[in-house]
Amino acid sequence: PTVVYIDHEETEHVVDVPNGDNLMQAALDNGVPSILGDCGGACACATCHVFVDPAWAEKVGPPSETEAEMLEGLIDPEPTSRLCCQIFMSDELDGVKVRLPESQF
Ligand code: FES
């Protein structure tokens, strides 16, 4: 399945992501800009912030309580904000779109 990462300049980065992989690691492995993943996917750094496209928000689902607390500390959270190390690929999410916050560049 594929993920479409859209950076703040509206450039689309389309990446094939194996099922079960998280969207932070997939971005790093494929050179998608602005996803840093400083904590290695432990939900502890919030440098993998993305805005899930509202059309996909329901399928992607809400953040866990720990993740929601991390999101509250960001300077630019939106209703569909997620830490993408906590989003795991599945066939259901094929074609999912996430936007990358300008503040993370
Ligand atoms: Fe650190 Fe996602 S990589 S919170």
UniProtKB/TrEMBL annotation:
Pfam annotation, one family: Fer2
CDD domains referenced in this protein's UniProt entry, alphabetically: fer2 (cd00207)
SUPFAM superfamilies: 2Fe-2S ferredoxin-like
Cofactor(s) the record lists: [2Fe-2S] cluster
Domain of life per record: Bacteria
GO MF: 2 iron, 2 sulfur cluster binding; electron transfer activity; metal ion binding
Keywords: 2Fe-2S, Iron, Iron-sulfur, Metal-binding, Ubiquinone
Matches recorded under PANTHER family: FERREDOXIN-2, MITOCHONDRIAL, FERREDOXIN/ADRENODOXIN
Protein name (record): 2Fe-2S iron-sulfur cluster-binding protein
